[in-house]
Amino acid sequence: MNEDMFEQLIESVSQADDIINGTAKPSRVTEFAEPQVKAIRAKTGLTQSRFADVLGVSKRTLENWEQGRRHPTGPARALLKILDANPKYALEALNH
């Protein structure tokens, strides 16, 4: 790495520190909409119990998501996005 690139890297780390510490604002913020779990489940035509099995979560967790008390994260959120985009093929791929 040449010296100019190193200086740019140090500057970007300094800017990140300022953002984290609240002394600067980020140039952009990306926000992702919460998945509408109940609507996604409705697209599949599955019961809560069956849908929870497909996602690999408990029925109670699914209920919490549907009622907005908790929110899916990580792989569950990704799977919900796939199910929302194409429920038929997603369920087919999951062998359900």
TrEMBL record:
InterPro entries on file: Cro/C1-type_HTH, HTH-type_reg/antitoxin, Lambda_DNA-bd_dom_sf, NadS-like
Name recorded for this polypeptide: NadS family protein
Keywords: DNA-binding, Transcription, Transcription regulation
Pfam families assigned: HTH_3 (PF01381)
Domain HTH cro/C1-type: 37-90
Entry-linked PROSITE patterns: HTH_CROC1
